[in-house]
Amino acid sequence: MIEFGTLILTALLLQTASLESTSPKERLDAIDRLSGTGRTENVAPLAEALKKEPKSDVRAAIVSGLARIRGPEVVPVLIQSLQSDLDKDVRLQVVDSLQRLYITVETQGPIRTIFNKVKSVFAGADRPLVHDPASVDPAVNAALADAMQKDFSQEVRAAAAQALGSLKARDRLGVMVSTLESPQNREHPEVRREIVESLGLIRDPAAGPALERAMRDSDRKISQAAILSIGLVGYKEARSTLENIFRTDRNVESREKALEALALMRDPQSSALFESLLDHSDDYYRELAAEGLARIGHDPAVLKTRYEAEKKPNVRNALAFALVAADQDRYFDDLASALDSRQAFQAEVYIYELGKFEGKLQELHRYLKSGNARVRARIAHIVGDIGDPSSRPLIEELTMDKDSEVVAEAIIALRKLTPA
Fold it and tell me: How many helices and strands (H and E) does the chain possess?
């Protein structure tokens, strides 16, 4: 009888042989086979193969496969690759993989990389963010911050700056600000813009003074990004500057960004401005005014009057958001229904805020039993993002839902609700 240890040794030898095949396709197939979630026993052979692999696309596949395996054993291998691989695209793949270690992103099918012309899911405006920043290994944030400062490729530096925002790397805020304001980085506007956007996602008011200075940047993309980030971090000292931009700037987009920032800031001093805009001819201004009032509180009687007269669905959703925030919970039905409409993303943002910050989580739970499968799925997604453990039993029920989209969202939400 062959001993169990002999079987394990034989299997490892076969894996190594596949990784050392002269055929790149066979090596890629071996990487795909070895890269199952939780297969930490394969980290060592993949790490060894990564050191010796001559082809960039195969190295990128190994990097991507390690992200699938996950686990702390993967971190030093990826960091070493970020610091030493000579191919820019492999380093970009490492930045993607480091984020996947901590941000739940569903992937199916064979490993695909930047060499397959696949755009990173973290490159979009609505990119996913880490659910628990404390779960991120400080060594990962340190390596990304180092790449943001020193990598030879501006593209890699920008991607690293972006990743620090997605991972909410508050411990790297100081180095991000110094990199943003360093004179030698004036020639790297894309890196600076990504830093500005990431500072907003980290949401630490300590970044406020630097962001206020960045609002005066000569690069309009950077200045506009700084305007919005000021609102995200809630730096109220910049309120009057934002109001002045809204009233006087000749650029329409800058004015809109300023009003967006004010609506995010939660400063009661902006109440008069928001009230004055509820009757504005521009429906986007009315929408943002209602959002701003939702976040600072307002007389529900005035909001109801505006709601009854409003025709635009985006503005009605914003007014419903303000009304629910003012404890008029019957308007929650409007927001839930909007999850199955063209305004679904807008409604998701509002519902998340109500559940996370306004004490309305129990209202969200009611809609997990909605007769509309789309609504059940989106509410499950939002509840997962909120991350309150009290939601877990209700989400577990949805893993047996008759609708496949609901089941998929419930499974993702459960991962977010399960302690690491």
Answer: 24, 0
